[in-house]
User: Fold GDP-mannose 4,6-dehydratase from candidate division CPR1 bacterium GW2011_GWA2_42_17.
Amino acid sequence: APPPQNEKTPFHPRSPYGCAKVFAYHTVINYREAYGIFAVNGILFNHESERRGETFVTRKITRGIARILAGLDKKIYLGNLDALRDWGYAPEYMEAAWRMMQCNTPDDYVVGTGKSHSVRDLVETAFACAGISDWQNYVGVDPRYYRPTEVEHLVADPAKAKQELGWEAKTEFNDLVKIMVKHDLKSHGLEKEAEKIKLV
Assistant:
């Protein structure tokens, strides 16, 4: 469905993982309606942090930069740089989940920032954090990483969460990237480089 996506947007899963999430979504609603269980669905858009797995694109980029600066790698290989995603900071999304559980009546909520950025934006921002402007020299595009059923543009409409839960994302995209790059530089012993990244 065209962006932004809200609680009424029809699901169209593009992977087995997506299919499993839709099954879980309907199971929650079924138990809520059939048995009166207090159960909510959080429809969480991409939420990232320093703990993100290393195979996910955000961490692949930030960790890849650290490995390049540490002399361990020469390039990062990625898929579709033009894919647009709504990336937010995971700890804030857990606050949203907690707020859902405090409601008097269970319901379903989209959680996201309401802003989208491309993978290319993420790459450029992350390399800039590390003081590298010519990122094109360190990034290769590999067709193997293209998804057979790519979703081009995902961006949340979190209006309901803001109105009913009083929740909204606070960490801006650039700051999220800084947090992740700083962490990966430190974890590779690049303390001096990490100290140059100032967080708000």
